[in-house]
User: Fold this.
Amino acid sequence: MSRADTSAAEEVHDREAVEGADGDGGDDGGPGDMAAQARFALETLAELDAGNGVSLPRLAKRTGLRVSVLLRLYTLMSDARVGDEQGPGWVRLHVDEDGRWIARITPVGRGDEAPAAGGGESAA
Assistant:
C-alpha cells in the first residue's frame, strides 16, 4: 500500500471512529459520541497546530465535523467556566483580526504540563 493510500485509509478509519459505522455523524446524542468527537477534535488540533493556531473551518474540513460542533467542543476543553465547573484548559479559542475563529492547543492539552491549580484566565 502506498503512503497516500495509507494516509487515506487512516482518514477513513478516523472518520468512522467519529461518525460511526452508519456514517450519520454519530449524532444520536449519546455521551460516547461526544467523547469520541472531542477526542478526535483534540487529536486533530494537536496534529495541525504548529504554534500559530488553526482556523475552525480548516479543522471542520479535516474532521468532517461542523464548525458549530467544534466551537462547542473546544469551548468545553478551554478554561472557560460553565456553571460551577472550570474547563481543563486544553484549548484556547480567539477571533483574529479578520473575524476568523482560531483554536490553539495549550501545553496542558498536549500533555506537556499539569493544569494549574485553581484554573484562572491566561492570555491567548
Observations:
- The chain has a mean pLDDT of 78.
- The radius of gyration is 15 Å.
